[in-house]
Amino acid sequence: MSNPSIDKLIEGILKECTPTSEEEINLHAMANKVKNKLESCVSEYKLGSKIKEIVFGGSFAKGTWLKNEADIDIFIKFKNEVDYGPFEDYGKLIGMQALKEYSPYLRYADHPYVEAYVDGVKFNIVPCFDVSFGDWKSAADRSPFHTSYVISNLNQEKKNQVRVLKKFLKSLKIYGAEISIEGFSGYVCEVLILKFGSFLSTIKFFSTYSNDNSVIGITKSDHEQEKHKRIFDSFLVILDPIDENRNLGSAISSRSVATLIQSSRKFLANPGNNYFREEPISRPNNDLKDLLSSFILVIEFKYSDRPSDVIWGQLKKMTRSICKFVESYGFRILKYQCNVHEKEKVCVIALLYESLTISKLSFKIGPEIFRLHDVEKFIEINDGSPLKWLDNDSRTRCLLFREFTNAKDYLEFVLTNKPDLIGIPRGLKNDFFRSFKIYTLDQNPSLDEHIKNTVSELLYTDGRVF
Amino acid sequence: MSNPSIDKLIEGILKECTPTSEEEINLHAMANKVKNKLESCVSEYKLGSKIKEIVFGGSFAKGTWLKNEADIDIFIKFKNEVDYGPFEDYGKLIGMQALKEYSPYLRYADHPYVEAYVDGVKFNIVPCFDVSFGDWKSAADRSPFHTSYVISNLNQEKKNQVRVLKKFLKSLKIYGAEISIEGFSGYVCEVLILKFGSFLSTIKFFSTYSNDNSVIGITKSDHEQEKHKRIFDSFLVILDPIDENRNLGSAISSRSVATLIQSSRKFLANPGNNYFREEPISRPNNDLKDLLSSFILVIEFKYSDRPSDVIWGQLKKMTRSICKFVESYGFRILKYQCNVHEKEKVCVIALLYESLTISKLSFKIGPEIFRLHDVEKFIEINDGSPLKWLDNDSRTRCLLFREFTNAKDYLEFVLTNKPDLIGIPRGLKNDFFRSFKIYTLDQNPSLDEHIKNTVSELLYTDGRVF
């Protein structure tokens, strides 16, 4: 069933995100220039015996980058017999030396790599090992296999469909495997288009996605899918076509998947350009912010430099720990938003509470009446409770009085006096305790811009999803 | 393993609750006198052709009544062929006429019966049908079979053990099958002693009672118990020895069972006379009452006369409905107590809230993301929500503002404007809406005695259980 208006819309988006041949020619020229520099550097340092070859990778090599948004990945393939130490050292050396005129700098993923802007285009110079399939020695070794697979299987038309899909996901902030996003990687987009043929088919698939068809595999039969569903315990299972024992979906959060499902439905019902625009999150109307300011607690702290995925991972973990901890005391967090402001090196956690004050009264529920010793222990522990009773479910209940009823007081007390009760990642502890601030939104009317942004995200409803 | 101090204690209690031979002789004389009056009345009204016989029943017939606390049950056994209308009418007539000099009055269980005090002893004159086993026509027909069974199987020593058990249960307020108690009936006590042999063995059994040994049957093997456990879905299964397809435990609340379990443990650890005394529930110390008075909501209303089991059943049902209803709005009831004050014809419900005020904020959780139409409907219904988001579990959440944040205001509003939302039993509606009052305890410092009693029960911790 073809829908002329949706087809026309996609046609327009296709044009927007497909690079011109001029862009392609320019990029290839630049890419070759940088590759030549790297190869010269290898010769200069007499590293030829350690290095198998230098190859292009990523969306540039596969021809699926978004118009005017290309990054160029270049892989330095070290021979298998090179040890890990020299691999890292020479990897850094080659990248830094070859691009020295472009102010290169080091970045860290699983291992260090070099980044530099050459004539406005970002280059990533990534060392990897030249290994046989499966004998991975570094996290980057699988990448060239993905690149070859996509190059061999994706024709020009499908490459452009990948671009439309990326644009759609990017607009919804669910494009990218990085921990800050936990969304759909470029490779996942390519696999989806290989599976479903087009952007529209992919969107249609997700609009009716259910638990029953949750395994996406290019070659496997439905029968075998059942098996994979049982093996991979994740919300969405996407089998890696070069290794069907690997689930590309495990890095995608269920929230990202749900966002794709729900926005696919809405897009099909009401297609529009807005699904392909990256608009900044608008500030919520001030009414809502004012209404909720006495329900929002902000925690901010400075952190020392570290890779983006590391700080995001630590911050997300810490935020979940804090929520769990305060909820176990009786507070209720309705929604939270955490954010790393990399420029300012500030982490912000904004928590929307059901209420910043809770009752003085609380209660505990004991074990099943049958469990003699546990019941005894429960009664002993709660000896001070002024009211104990058996409820209709036959469990013992104890009335207790809370020491703290204010969310800020409670969190401040615990962080100051019993910080180990909250699971703060070890690598963040020093930074956190040196610099943390806690305040409610209504206490602090003049907020820094990056705090305002986090609060805006907290109070944002994406009209394209709901 | 014998414990001399516990044996001595039970010996003492045995003496306290076993009637003297003087009491026995007196009761038998009185019982025969009343029975003769009933028989004369049958002759006088020429009802001999309708009536098979007049027999004693209940604890008096079985010899298990508590010293100085005997009620005497007399059953008028109508012949099977008598219709239900005449059965009721003649039943009432005989009782009322025969005992007219003792100010008899009607009471209602499943069918009407006559009650009167003769020389300080309560007599219940209950009509039943003379049926074959199993062909029950009225709820009282099974009783004579129970009586015969107990008389044939319970020796004098065990009768006295039944008395000790009754005393123990009565002291803990879990003796009696009436709906106000939902406890252990006299017949259940007899069956337990037949099963376990003595009070102490019964208590020991319950002190280690668990889900695995939850079927109590006198004759059945353990193998068959499994079957019964599956058939009877109740906390405690006690097979009726005269009909093992019947579960005597179904009328016993799990709270009553749990009370027996827990107090058995405590009694064995620390035996004392206090487990056999019926002390009135002491007023909680005023500190606790003062501390909690701003957390307690009282609902009271007058009711028109009806049988005790009827009003108790209605009140308990209504109390559960109210709790469920206010909890679904976001309030939390920690504990409740309801009470029928039969003298004043007043029902009282006392609710201990976690807090009488709740947050303005609330939220709703939508269906699973896969359920396309349900999600759509959910979003449509909550269109007015100012904040919608997908949470980590992939469900849609909506922020909502509550109209009411005060427990009393909310309940008053609903009861006045939308009473049908709360499940008030039909038979109570008129009485309730004509007379209900709602107030918080701290609003109303000068409480009637019966309200004070209900609040005392609400705030009572039984030291023999915890």
Write up what this structure looks like.
The structure is a homodimer of 466-residue chains. Chain A is α+β, with helices and mostly antiparallel strands and 466 residues long. Chain A folds into four domains: 19-146, Beta Polymerase, domain 2 (2-Layer Sandwich), CATH 3.30.460.10; 154-276, Poly(a)-polymerase, middle domain, CATH 1.10.1410; 286-358 and 404-458, 2-Layer Sandwich (Alpha-Beta Plaits); 361-401, no CATH class. The first copy, chain A, is built from 16 helices and 15 strands. Chain A has helices at residues 4-17, 21-44, 58-62, 84-98, 143-153, 156-171, 186-196, 199-207, 222-231, 254-269, 286-292, 308-329, 372-381, 407-417, 426-435, 449-458; strands spanning 51-57, 71-79, 105-108, 112-118, 121-130, 215-216, 237-240, 243-247, 296-302, 333-341, 346-353, 361-365, 388-390, 396-401, 437-440. In chain A, the strands form four sheets. Chain A has a five-stranded mixed beta sheet, with helices on both faces. A four-stranded antiparallel beta sheet of chain A has the order 10-11-9-15, sandwiched between helices. In chain A, a hairpin with a 2-residue loop joins strand 4 (112-118) and strand 5 (121-130). In chain A, helix 1 crosses helix 6 (156-171), helix 6 (156-171) crosses helix 7 (186-196) and helix 7 crosses helix 8 (199-207).
